[in-house]
What does this fold into?
Amino acid sequence: MEQQAYWAIAIFLVIYGLIISEKIHRTIVAMIGAILMVATGIVSQEVALHHIDFNTLGLLIGMMIIVSITAETGLFRYMAVWAAKKVKGEPVWILVALASITALGSAFLDNVTTVLLMVPVTFSITRQLRVSPTPFLITQIFAANVGGTATLIGDPPNIMIGSAVEELTFMAFINNLTPIAIIVMLVYLPIFVFMFRKQIHTTPELKAGLMKLDISAIITDHKLLRKCLIMMGLTILGFFLHQTVHLESATVALAGAFVLLLMTGEHKMEESLSRVEWTTIFFFIGLFVLVSGLVETGVIAQLAARAIDLTGGDLVATSMLILWLSAIASAFIDNIPFVATMIPLIQEMGQMGVTDLEPLWWSLALGACLGGNGTLIGASANLIVAGLAGKEGHPIRFLSFLKIGFPLMLLSIALCSIYIYLRYLI
Amino acid sequence: MVTYSYDQGKLDIQESKDGEDTSFAIRVIGDDPQMLQGLKQVQRTFEENQDFDDVLFYAYPGHEYKIIVQQQYYDDFVTELFKARLLDSVARK
It folds into this structure.
């Protein structure tokens, strides 16, 4: 390897270490890493810009705008309370219902956004029933990560994979990942019920109080809700059709966002744009440039060659290696930088003669998304829920979560191994 | 101790202890739009802050509301009712 490759590895490892240590905000660290890659001449500014995946960024920004406007209408609270009434205020079934809504929401929205919408209504319902919110919040963490696995837009790793591989369309993600996400959720739900059933009892009087709630009063702005539902529906339809109409998913999401802004008026624009998580967007930009240093200096090619040596180029062994490695890594480190590194590695494997990359992509997506359930630091949604729960006096401890999360994560990855083997490798 | 007064022709407010919290049962009499708007404004104030269970609103048919207020937010809640012109006066005795 050339001298520049060693510099690229050194910068990458130091930056990666700083991201894991969480001593400095990950966005600042990733951007400094990116600037170092350019400033030291490892990649030119032009090459660095070329490596930034604007489809990933556009998709994230578009969806963040749509969700920030829709959240104002009370739609998500309405859905949660409606479901709680449908199951007659029975806490165990409310737990199942809220987890299912979270999973469904996460499939089409960012996981963090989904839990941010679900946590307040969970506190509201559990307070009324006088049950602990903790079991509900823990199940929502799992549901968010499983639901996010199901679609191209559900979780950042999937957005990144979908953007990097043209053939992996929105429908391809639905066809390949939604079935296993549903299976994992169906296995998880009875486990949640069994684990938490004794902790969430309430009285018939409190249930009756919940049943009397007027859900029509929850929607704060019916006119805005109609506009949001129309644009959300059209945007999701656009995702289904994006390949047919030859549009990238980012174009669809940004079109949905800005047509919605056109319908709601200028006064919503400043507020919605300020709610875009710019720290996340710049984190992505930093990572793309950071990884470009490894790609351009041939480090990724060398790593791909080593991985092929290790598995002998066998597709079963390579898929399982990627699946389990991604899951274990994602349980402890941020899955976004991990996936940003793995994408060029898998692409390199393709250039080295691995003909069928599809099982490798699905292994990466499943491992990276579901691995986040392993520990409390495995995914952003986990940390957000734990942070909010702690603030409201219901702390979720690292070790108590690990005892539940790690076995459940291993179970889901075992299910994925069987799924990938049966569907793609025999 | 905080005391308050309000127009009893437009509002009915009942206060009770709910564990460590205080529970308010507020009914808007005669669908007064100003009162309803004021109550929505108070709800928005507490729903938009960073604390999720400081003040919890539950709406029932007939413009009845149950509001559970954590002890440390009692004064804030009463102040917001006053700011939204649901209360005529607030005093500490």
In short: Chain B has a mean pLDDT of 90. The longest strand of chain B covers residues 11-18. The first helix of chain B runs from residue 33 to 48.
